[in-house]
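Box 3.1 A note on notation
Throughout this textbook, protein chains are presented in two layers. The first layer is the amino acid sequence; the second is a token string describing backbone geometry. Keep the layers aligned when reading.
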Amino acid sequence: MNKGLQWINWSHSFISNPDQIVYPSNEQELVALTKKANQTNQKIKIVGSGHSCSLIAATKSGYLVDLKNYTKVIHFDASNKLLSVQGGASLKQIADFALKNKLALDNLGTIVEQSIAGAISTGTHGSGLNYGALDQAVVAFTIITATGHLKIFDRRLNPSEFNLAVVGLGALGIISTVTLQLVTNYHLKINTTTLSFNEMIDKLDVAYTDEYMRFWWAPHTDKVQYWSASKTQQNISKKSNFSEWFNNIVKGNMLHELGLWLTSFKLKNIPSLNKVMYKLLLAPETKDKVVNFLDGFTLPILVKQKVMEYGIPIEETKAVLIKINELLNTKKHLVHMPIEVRFSPKNESAMSMAYGHKTCYIGIIAYKPYGKVIDFGTYFKDVHDIFAAHRGKPHWAKVTYYTKKELASLYPKWNEFKSLKQKLDPQQIFTNNFLKRLFD
């Protein structure tokens, strides 16, 4: 064990002050720690990569368990394409392992620094109605309960129990191991083009026909980058490593962060910055670019940020986007780009944003250039109100303004999940203030 005074998450949105910080490397250490915490009535909070900007991983006492050394591959079944890893393994590690073995994941989000345990616990997802969120690629996972016992949740043996627990918010115990269903390797053929906001609104039905689809809307520009992709076995396109670095790191992060910092002193310049950055980053069109699946889904994102993202029933997409556009025009909010819009199929995981219906995810962002906090609280709350009017469900790792009562009304199996939490953790060893606000 290592004594520690504080632990800071990636976006610097909160600081944890546990009594001790622990860096386990094997399951036996985790079991022993849990038994000790149970005997001494100490709290345990697990952290992976710390990318959550909500307080889901925050703690002020007890043990903070950092999984950065708990990242090993446990078992690989090549014939069935099944990969079992420790809970701290990052999505990047998993994707790289898949590529080395001529396999892939069906879908990924924009970043892959998250741990697999944290990603499935919070409902991390990509985009495309044909392929589910990360928790939908999980076949089985093992939890260390509050008493130090191992409990296996297996989709094949008990799907109802599995679906109740897999998006678990860190409330049920320590996710020790995860078994994922990989797929045959593929490349992505990508196309991007610029549309006006109204043109994109009129084309929303492409979400049903494109294999993968998302769009990035740049507020104050009336411009949208429409991104679509499909699986292919075509050869990967030639690329320039320097060009990729210059576009993604220099322009996409360094130059953008400088502009964000300068406009923080005069917010009225944000629209001009958005126009410049859209032209530099998103306007150039891509036609039939072929890349490996990992490069196709992801981008390096280095600038600290606060994000709010909700999943709404897909049929509400047009109405919600029009309302957000009207909000920006009428209340004159000056906001950062992009507003990200993605789509996913119905999910059976009880605490998923997409539970029970095809879903549109809409995310808004407030950057923190060089760590500087810019107050976008009113903007976030106003957009939350629009989401709430359309029964939007929040991403657990991001900002929400819902009350406990409001959240309970959105999730049909809320009380079943709460009962499972009570059964597995009756002394609330894994309950921090975030979970207490939701369930107590």
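The chain has 14 helices and 21 strands. Residues 241-263 form the longest helix (23 residues).
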